[in-house]
Amino acid sequence: MKVLIELDSNDIKIGAVNDVLDLARYSKNLDVKFYLAGPSGDELSEAAKSCGMSLIPFFSRQVSKRHFLSYSLNVFKWVFIIKRIRPDIVHLNYVSWGPSLGLAAYLCGVPVVARAGGCYNSRNLTHRWVTRYFANCIQQGDNLLKSVVADKVSVVGDLVNLERFKSIGKPLDPYPPKVDGFIRFLFVGQLVERKGIDFLVKAFSKLPENSDLLLVGGDWSNPGYPQKIKEMIKNCGLTERIHCLNHREDAIAIMNECDVFVLPSLSEARPRSIIEAMLMGKCVLATEVGGVPTLIDDGETGLLVKAKDSDALGESMERLIVDDGLRFNLSVNAKKIAKRTFDPVKTAGNYYKVYADVIK
Protein backbone atom coordinates (compact mmCIF):
# COMPACT_ATOMS: atom_id res chain seq x y z
CA MET A 1 0.00 0.00 0.00
CA LYS A 2 1.28 3.48 -0.92
CA VAL A 3 0.14 6.51 1.09
CA LEU A 4 0.93 10.10 0.12
CA ILE A 5 0.68 12.39 3.16
CA GLU A 6 0.90 16.18 3.04
CA LEU A 7 1.68 18.28 6.11
CA ASP A 8 0.99 21.99 6.38
CA SER A 9 3.96 22.61 8.71
CA ASN A 10 7.56 21.45 9.01
CA ASP A 11 7.71 22.19 12.75
CA ILE A 12 8.56 18.89 14.43
CA LYS A 13 7.56 20.38 17.80
CA ILE A 14 3.90 20.21 16.77
CA GLY A 15 1.89 17.15 17.78
CA ALA A 16 0.22 16.77 14.37
CA VAL A 17 3.62 16.56 12.68
CA ASN A 18 4.87 14.00 15.19
CA ASP A 19 1.71 11.94 14.66
CA VAL A 20 2.64 11.50 11.00
CA LEU A 21 6.21 10.51 11.86
CA ASP A 22 5.01 8.02 14.47
CA LEU A 23 2.43 6.62 12.07
CA ALA A 24 5.22 5.79 9.64
CA ARG A 25 7.48 4.54 12.45
CA TYR A 26 4.93 2.04 13.75
CA SER A 27 3.59 0.93 10.36
CA LYS A 28 6.82 -0.68 9.21
CA ASN A 29 5.41 -4.19 9.65
CA LEU A 30 2.20 -3.38 7.78
CA ASP A 31 3.67 -3.22 4.26
CA VAL A 32 2.88 0.50 3.85
CA LYS A 33 5.09 2.89 1.92
CA PHE A 34 4.68 6.52 3.01
CA TYR A 35 5.51 9.55 0.85
CA LEU A 36 5.73 12.88 2.73
CA ALA A 37 4.96 16.19 1.03
CA GLY A 38 4.49 19.73 2.29
CA PRO A 39 6.83 22.46 3.59
CA SER A 40 10.26 20.90 4.03
CA GLY A 41 13.04 21.56 6.50
CA ASP A 42 16.27 19.85 7.50
CA GLU A 43 14.92 18.60 10.84
CA LEU A 44 11.69 17.23 9.38
CA SER A 45 13.46 15.69 6.38
CA GLU A 46 15.94 13.88 8.62
CA ALA A 47 13.19 12.67 10.95
CA ALA A 48 11.01 11.49 8.05
CA LYS A 49 13.86 9.53 6.45
CA SER A 50 14.64 7.86 9.78
CA CYS A 51 11.01 6.64 9.81
CA GLY A 52 11.35 5.18 6.31
CA MET A 53 9.40 7.90 4.50
CA SER A 54 10.22 9.14 1.00
CA LEU A 55 10.14 12.91 0.52
CA ILE A 56 8.16 14.74 -2.16
CA PRO A 57 9.56 18.31 -2.40
CA PHE A 58 6.27 19.98 -3.27
CA PHE A 59 3.31 21.47 -1.41
CA SER A 60 -0.28 22.53 -2.03
CA ARG A 61 -1.89 25.86 -2.66
CA GLN A 62 -5.34 26.72 -1.35
CA VAL A 63 -8.09 27.52 -3.83
CA SER A 64 -8.28 31.21 -4.68
CA LYS A 65 -9.97 33.23 -7.43
CA ARG A 66 -7.19 35.79 -7.28
CA HIS A 67 -4.48 33.17 -7.80
CA PHE A 68 -6.50 30.79 -9.95
CA LEU A 69 -3.78 30.35 -12.59
CA SER A 70 -1.04 29.40 -10.11
CA TYR A 71 -3.52 27.16 -8.28
CA SER A 72 -4.38 25.37 -11.54
CA LEU A 73 -0.72 24.88 -12.41
CA ASN A 74 -0.15 23.48 -8.94
CA VAL A 75 -3.01 20.99 -9.42
CA PHE A 76 -1.51 19.83 -12.73
CA LYS A 77 1.89 19.33 -11.07
CA TRP A 78 0.21 17.20 -8.39
CA VAL A 79 -1.54 15.14 -11.06
CA PHE A 80 1.87 14.47 -12.63
CA ILE A 81 3.31 13.43 -9.22
CA ILE A 82 0.32 11.17 -8.51
CA LYS A 83 0.65 9.50 -11.90
CA ARG A 84 4.35 8.95 -11.21
CA ILE A 85 4.24 7.45 -7.71
CA ARG A 86 0.72 5.94 -8.04
CA PRO A 87 -0.43 6.21 -4.38
CA ASP A 88 -3.36 4.09 -3.22
CA ILE A 89 -4.55 6.88 -0.95
CA VAL A 90 -3.88 10.57 -0.27
CA HIS A 91 -3.82 11.67 3.37
CA LEU A 92 -4.22 15.39 4.11
CA ASN A 93 -3.00 16.13 7.62
CA TYR A 94 -5.21 19.22 7.73
CA VAL A 95 -8.52 20.42 6.29
CA SER A 96 -7.79 23.77 4.67
CA TRP A 97 -9.66 25.44 1.83
CA GLY A 98 -9.40 23.24 -1.22
CA PRO A 99 -5.73 22.21 -1.15
CA SER A 100 -4.56 21.49 -4.68
CA LEU A 101 -3.38 17.99 -3.76
CA GLY A 102 -6.91 17.13 -2.65
CA LEU A 103 -8.34 18.23 -5.99
CA ALA A 104 -5.62 16.42 -7.96
CA ALA A 105 -6.30 13.19 -6.06
CA TYR A 106 -10.03 13.58 -6.65
CA LEU A 107 -9.47 14.11 -10.39
CA CYS A 108 -7.19 11.05 -10.52
CA GLY A 109 -9.70 8.87 -8.70
CA VAL A 110 -7.44 8.41 -5.67
CA PRO A 111 -9.36 8.36 -2.36
CA VAL A 112 -8.65 11.21 0.08
CA VAL A 113 -8.58 11.03 3.88
CA ALA A 114 -7.79 13.79 6.38
CA ARG A 115 -7.04 14.56 10.00
CA ALA A 116 -10.19 15.54 11.91
CA GLY A 117 -10.27 19.09 13.20
CA GLY A 118 -12.19 22.31 12.80
CA CYS A 119 -15.81 22.65 11.78
CA TYR A 120 -17.69 21.40 8.74
CA ASN A 121 -18.33 24.06 6.11
CA SER A 122 -20.34 23.16 3.01
CA ARG A 123 -18.47 25.84 1.04
CA ASN A 124 -15.13 24.17 1.71
CA LEU A 125 -14.45 21.91 -1.28
CA THR A 126 -12.15 19.73 0.81
CA HIS A 127 -15.13 18.23 2.63
CA ARG A 128 -16.49 17.05 -0.74
CA TRP A 129 -13.29 15.20 -1.56
CA VAL A 130 -12.54 13.57 1.82
CA THR A 131 -13.78 10.02 2.27
CA ARG A 132 -12.75 9.55 5.91
CA TYR A 133 -11.49 11.66 8.82
CA PHE A 134 -9.05 10.44 11.50
CA ALA A 135 -9.49 11.55 15.11
CA ASN A 136 -7.35 10.41 18.03
CA CYS A 137 -10.36 10.83 20.34
CA ILE A 138 -14.05 11.73 20.13
CA GLN A 139 -13.32 15.24 21.39
CA GLN A 140 -10.96 15.96 18.49
CA GLY A 141 -13.65 15.03 15.98
CA ASP A 142 -16.48 16.56 18.02
CA ASN A 143 -17.43 19.29 15.55
CA LEU A 144 -17.41 16.94 12.57
CA LEU A 145 -19.36 14.31 14.54
CA LYS A 146 -22.13 16.89 14.92
CA SER A 147 -22.24 17.58 11.16
CA VAL A 148 -23.44 15.83 8.02
CA VAL A 149 -20.04 14.05 7.71
CA ALA A 150 -20.35 12.33 11.10
CA ASP A 151 -20.38 8.87 9.52
CA LYS A 152 -16.98 9.58 7.94
CA VAL A 153 -15.14 10.11 11.26
CA SER A 154 -13.00 7.23 12.59
CA VAL A 155 -11.52 7.38 16.10
CA VAL A 156 -8.18 5.58 15.82
CA GLY A 157 -6.33 6.35 19.07
CA ASP A 158 -3.09 8.03 20.07
CA LEU A 159 0.36 7.91 18.54
CA VAL A 160 3.49 8.40 20.64
CA ASN A 161 7.14 7.50 20.13
CA LEU A 162 7.92 4.95 22.83
CA GLU A 163 11.57 4.80 21.74
CA ARG A 164 12.13 8.15 23.46
CA PHE A 165 11.60 6.60 26.88
CA LYS A 166 14.19 3.82 26.59
CA SER A 167 17.20 6.04 27.35
CA ILE A 168 16.10 9.42 28.65
CA GLY A 169 19.42 10.41 30.22
CA LYS A 170 20.26 13.83 31.62
CA PRO A 171 19.49 17.23 30.03
CA LEU A 172 22.05 17.96 27.34
CA ASP A 173 22.30 21.72 27.87
CA PRO A 174 22.49 23.72 31.11
CA TYR A 175 19.25 24.87 32.69
CA PRO A 176 18.26 26.20 36.15
CA PRO A 177 19.24 23.53 38.70
CA LYS A 178 16.57 22.14 40.97
CA VAL A 179 16.83 23.50 44.52
CA ASP A 180 16.71 20.96 47.34
CA GLY A 181 13.35 21.03 49.08
CA PHE A 182 11.67 22.86 46.17
CA ILE A 183 8.77 21.39 44.22
CA ARG A 184 9.37 21.95 40.51
CA PHE A 185 6.45 22.51 38.14
CA LEU A 186 6.98 22.19 34.39
CA PHE A 187 5.05 23.45 31.36
CA VAL A 188 6.09 22.32 27.87
CA GLY A 189 4.28 23.63 24.80
CA GLN A 190 3.73 26.37 22.26
CA LEU A 191 3.86 29.99 23.41
CA VAL A 192 0.32 30.86 22.36
CA GLU A 193 -2.73 32.13 24.26
CA ARG A 194 -4.54 28.81 23.80
CA LYS A 195 -2.05 27.23 26.20
CA GLY A 196 -3.18 29.47 29.09
CA ILE A 197 0.32 30.31 30.34
CA ASP A 198 -0.88 33.68 31.68
CA PHE A 199 -3.33 31.90 34.00
CA LEU A 200 -0.50 29.62 35.13
CA VAL A 201 1.75 32.56 36.01
CA LYS A 202 -1.08 34.21 37.94
CA ALA A 203 -1.75 30.97 39.84
CA PHE A 204 1.94 30.45 40.61
CA SER A 205 2.28 34.00 42.00
CA LYS A 206 0.24 32.90 45.06
CA LEU A 207 2.29 29.80 45.88
CA PRO A 208 4.75 29.31 48.73
CA GLU A 209 8.38 30.11 47.99
CA ASN A 210 9.49 26.46 48.15
CA SER A 211 8.50 25.95 44.50
CA ASP A 212 9.64 26.99 41.06
CA LEU A 213 8.30 26.77 37.50
CA LEU A 214 9.93 26.02 34.16
CA LEU A 215 8.19 27.28 31.02
CA VAL A 216 9.71 25.41 28.08
CA GLY A 217 8.86 25.89 24.42
CA GLY A 218 8.93 28.15 21.40
CA ASP A 219 11.16 31.21 21.24
CA TRP A 220 10.87 33.62 24.15
CA SER A 221 12.42 36.44 22.12
CA ASN A 222 9.39 36.57 19.80
CA PRO A 223 7.02 39.54 20.14
CA GLY A 224 3.42 39.27 21.32
CA TYR A 225 2.34 36.62 23.79
CA PRO A 226 5.86 35.56 24.94
CA GLN A 227 6.66 39.17 25.86
CA LYS A 228 3.33 39.51 27.66
CA ILE A 229 4.20 36.50 29.82
CA LYS A 230 7.72 37.75 30.55
CA GLU A 231 6.28 41.11 31.60
CA MET A 232 3.81 39.37 33.91
CA ILE A 233 6.64 37.41 35.51
CA LYS A 234 8.65 40.59 36.05
CA ASN A 235 5.70 42.53 37.49
CA CYS A 236 4.93 39.68 39.92
CA GLY A 237 8.54 39.65 41.12
CA LEU A 238 8.97 36.02 40.04
CA THR A 239 12.05 36.20 37.82
CA GLU A 240 14.01 34.09 40.34
CA ARG A 241 11.39 31.33 40.49
CA ILE A 242 9.89 31.21 36.97
CA HIS A 243 12.36 30.32 34.24
CA CYS A 244 11.61 30.74 30.52
CA LEU A 245 13.47 28.31 28.26
CA ASN A 246 13.30 28.13 24.48
CA HIS A 247 12.33 24.86 22.80
CA ARG A 248 14.67 22.10 23.92
CA GLU A 249 15.51 18.86 22.13
CA ASP A 250 16.11 17.39 25.60
CA ALA A 251 12.71 18.48 26.97
CA ILE A 252 11.87 14.91 27.91
CA ALA A 253 14.98 14.73 30.12
CA ILE A 254 13.92 17.98 31.80
CA MET A 255 10.45 16.51 32.31
CA ASN A 256 12.02 13.48 33.94
CA GLU A 257 13.53 15.72 36.64
CA CYS A 258 10.38 17.72 37.46
CA ASP A 259 7.86 16.96 40.20
CA VAL A 260 4.63 18.05 38.49
CA PHE A 261 3.77 18.53 34.83
CA VAL A 262 1.15 21.26 34.41
CA LEU A 263 -0.86 22.09 31.29
CA PRO A 264 -3.29 25.03 31.77
CA SER A 265 -4.69 25.00 28.21
CA LEU A 266 -7.90 26.70 27.14
CA SER A 267 -8.47 24.08 24.42
CA GLU A 268 -6.88 20.74 23.49
CA ALA A 269 -7.60 17.41 21.82
CA ARG A 270 -5.57 14.70 23.60
CA PRO A 271 -2.21 16.36 24.31
CA ARG A 272 0.87 14.33 23.48
CA SER A 273 2.69 16.11 26.34
CA ILE A 274 0.29 14.66 28.94
CA ILE A 275 0.68 11.18 27.46
CA GLU A 276 4.47 11.48 27.66
CA ALA A 277 4.32 12.77 31.25
CA MET A 278 2.09 9.84 32.26
CA LEU A 279 4.39 7.31 30.59
CA MET A 280 7.25 8.78 32.62
CA GLY A 281 5.27 8.43 35.83
CA LYS A 282 4.85 12.14 36.44
CA CYS A 283 2.12 13.79 38.45
CA VAL A 284 -0.07 15.76 36.01
CA LEU A 285 -2.20 18.84 36.68
CA ALA A 286 -4.27 20.04 33.72
CA THR A 287 -7.44 21.82 32.71
CA GLU A 288 -10.56 19.81 31.91
CA VAL A 289 -10.78 20.79 28.25
CA GLY A 290 -11.24 18.74 25.07
CA GLY A 291 -9.97 15.19 25.42
CA VAL A 292 -7.90 15.83 28.57
CA PRO A 293 -10.54 14.24 30.88
CA THR A 294 -10.27 11.05 28.79
CA LEU A 295 -6.59 10.91 29.76
CA ILE A 296 -6.76 12.06 33.38
CA ASP A 297 -9.08 10.56 35.98
CA ASP A 298 -9.33 13.43 38.46
CA GLY A 299 -7.93 12.43 41.83
CA GLU A 300 -6.71 9.05 40.54
CA THR A 301 -4.19 9.61 37.75
CA GLY A 302 -3.85 13.39 38.03
CA LEU A 303 -5.74 16.54 38.97
CA LEU A 304 -8.13 18.53 36.76
CA VAL A 305 -9.34 22.14 37.14
CA LYS A 306 -11.53 24.40 35.04
CA ALA A 307 -9.84 26.42 32.31
CA LYS A 308 -9.15 30.14 32.97
CA ASP A 309 -9.57 29.61 36.74
CA SER A 310 -6.22 30.70 38.14
CA ASP A 311 -7.50 30.44 41.73
CA ALA A 312 -8.47 26.77 41.33
CA LEU A 313 -5.21 26.10 39.50
CA GLY A 314 -3.20 27.72 42.29
CA GLU A 315 -5.07 25.78 44.98
CA SER A 316 -4.31 22.48 43.22
CA MET A 317 -0.66 23.44 42.78
CA GLU A 318 -0.36 24.26 46.49
CA ARG A 319 -2.07 20.99 47.36
CA LEU A 320 0.57 19.12 45.37
CA ILE A 321 3.35 21.07 47.08
CA VAL A 322 2.30 20.14 50.62
CA ASP A 323 1.05 16.58 50.01
CA ASP A 324 3.94 14.31 49.03
CA GLY A 325 1.75 11.21 49.30
CA LEU A 326 -0.78 12.58 46.82
CA ARG A 327 1.94 13.40 44.29
CA PHE A 328 3.40 9.92 44.65
CA ASN A 329 0.06 8.10 44.26
CA LEU A 330 -0.98 10.16 41.23
CA SER A 331 2.39 9.50 39.58
CA VAL A 332 2.28 5.73 40.17
CA ASN A 333 -1.32 5.45 38.94
CA ALA A 334 -0.61 7.58 35.86
CA LYS A 335 2.28 5.39 34.73
CA LYS A 336 0.33 2.19 35.36
CA ILE A 337 -2.63 3.36 33.24
CA ALA A 338 -0.38 4.84 30.53
CA LYS A 339 1.60 1.63 29.99
CA ARG A 340 -1.65 -0.29 29.66
CA THR A 341 -3.42 2.24 27.44
CA PHE A 342 -1.05 3.78 24.90
CA ASP A 343 -0.03 1.37 22.16
CA PRO A 344 1.17 3.11 18.97
CA VAL A 345 1.44 -0.23 17.16
CA LYS A 346 -2.28 -0.82 17.71
CA THR A 347 -3.07 2.76 16.64
CA ALA A 348 -1.03 2.38 13.44
CA GLY A 349 -3.01 -0.80 12.78
CA ASN A 350 -6.25 1.16 13.18
CA TYR A 351 -5.05 3.67 10.56
CA TYR A 352 -4.18 0.79 8.26
CA LYS A 353 -7.64 -0.76 8.62
CA VAL A 354 -9.28 2.54 7.67
CA TYR A 355 -6.91 2.98 4.71
CA ALA A 356 -7.76 -0.54 3.50
CA ASP A 357 -11.47 0.01 3.95
CA VAL A 358 -11.37 3.29 2.03
CA ILE A 359 -9.40 1.73 -0.81
CA LYS A 360 -11.94 -1.06 -1.11
What's this, in brief?
This protein has 360 residues and is an alpha/beta fold. It is built from 13 helices and 13 strands.
State the share of residues found in helices, binned by percent. 25-40%
- Backbone shape: elongated
Largest sheet report: 7 strands, parallel
Which blocks of ≥5 consecutive residues have pLDDT under 50? Answer: none
| The level-1 CATH class of the largest domain | Alpha Beta
What key attributes describe this structure?
alpha/beta; elongated; 2 domains; 13 strands; Rossmann fold; 360 residues; 7-stranded parallel β-sheet; 37% helix
Structural description of this entry:
This protein is of the alpha/beta class and 360 residues long. It has two domains: 2-160 and 343-359, Rossmann fold, CATH 3.40.50; 164-341, Rossmann fold (3-Layer(aba) Sandwich). Helices cover 37% and strands 16% of the residues. It has 13 helices and 13 strands. It has helices at 15-25, 42-50, 68-85, 100-107, 126-129, 142-145, 197-204, 225-235, 251-256, 272-279, 310-322, 324-341, 344-359, and strands spanning 2-6, 33-37, 54-56, 89-92, 112-115, 130-135, 153-155, 183-188, 211-216, 242-245, 260-263, 283-287, 303-305. The chain has a seven-stranded parallel β-sheet with strand order 3-2-1-4-5-6-7. Strands 10-9-8-11-12-13 form a six-stranded parallel β-sheet, sandwiched between helices. Strand 4 (89-92), helix 4 (100-107) and strand 5 (112-115) form a beta-alpha-beta unit. Helix 7 runs parallel beside helix 8. The radius of gyration is 22 Å and the shape is elongated. It starts with a strand and ends with a helix. 42% of the residues are buried.
